[in-house]
Amino acid sequence: MHSGPIGVGIVGAGRISDLHAIEYLASPLARIVALCDVDTARASARAAAWGLDGIPIDDHADSLLARPEVDLVEILLPHHLHLETALKAIDAGKIVSLQKPMCLSLGEADRLVAAAEASGRPFKVFENFLFYPPVLRARKLIAEGAIGAPLSIRIKSNPGRSATAWDVPESAIAWRQRPEQSGGGPLVFDDGHHKFALARHFMGEPEEVHAFIGRTETADRRQRLDAPSIVSFRFPGNRIGNLEVVHSPELEIATRHYAQDDRVEITGSRGVIWLNGGHGRLGDAAPLALYRDGALTEFRDVETGWEQSFVLSTRHFLEAVSEGGRPVLTAREGRQVLRFALAALESAREGRPVPVQAEGGPGA
Questions:
Q1: d(Cα 287, Cα 279) in Å, to the nearest integer?
Q2: Which of 58, 109, 221, 253 is the most exposed place for a label (fewest CB within 10 A)?
Q3: Residue 97 forms beta bridges with which residues?
Q4: Stated pTM of the model
Q5: What domains, with CATH codes, occur in the chain?
Q6: Which helix (H) or strand (E) is 147 found in, with range?
Q7: 223-239 pLDDT tens trace
């Protein structure tokens, strides 16, 4: 538990930091006390935009971690820097929120889990999709028995184009194209973390993963995408699921963030739930719909701004830190999502189904 406002230091001032900062700026439980980025001008611009003129700006994580006013560190760095920076933050006695995926391999993840659990302080692998309001409502409906026993989950990830999307900086694209820094492709491994986390959230731990991962170069040649791809998974109790990733270069998507639409269908023994939208939207479909007993019910009273998933995820963590609750995802849970993703990469690489074990397994 923590008394008084939590001093927050953010390491990495890229575009995504705008969404991470929203609840820290609004919550009485926290205040941002320091920023860090190798590009100090970028960090200073973020501070000014957030109304934090005069806040300390560091160009190295070590400097920020040495600040006694920093209680909690939000790590928003390229994937290959996660392990080193998170371990340093733990050693410095900080509470940690680490951007997903937690690191590049299960060997790295094991080191991080051991350090986080030994520290006795809250440690979170940041996963916002579990807090997206339509997902929260769907989870409540399923817990109430709305579709009976969940039998399958289908997830569609569909990047396209958008006149209203974020302009993603070239530097953010570049490191994601380097496997030694990113750990895998931008759609199946990086963004796929959200989808594998959703599959676990609704269906539990997978037993086996079988994947095909394709390759596509965007028309502007800025990116090589790991699409078209399909990842199938089996769960205990004769239940199944899949993730399908398709790049549609001429598909216009309404969004204020990434030019991507996400759709989820969960089939149960009694009914079906559909989740529409995530990063962006196609048309005016209800964000959540339920079919049961011959009737279709649409839920249009659910917030759909993608930023709300960041707000609610951060709010939950601050409350857990302040009141002694459990973060979502814990380090151990983050490891489980990572092994799910690594199993998909291994399956596609070897052309065979890959069993997923609780300990050890792909990428160890």
A1: 12
A2: 221
A3: 74, 124
A4: 0.95
A5: 6-126+310-325 (3.40.50.720), 129-303+342-347 (3.30.360.10)
A6: none
A7: 899 999 999 999 999 99
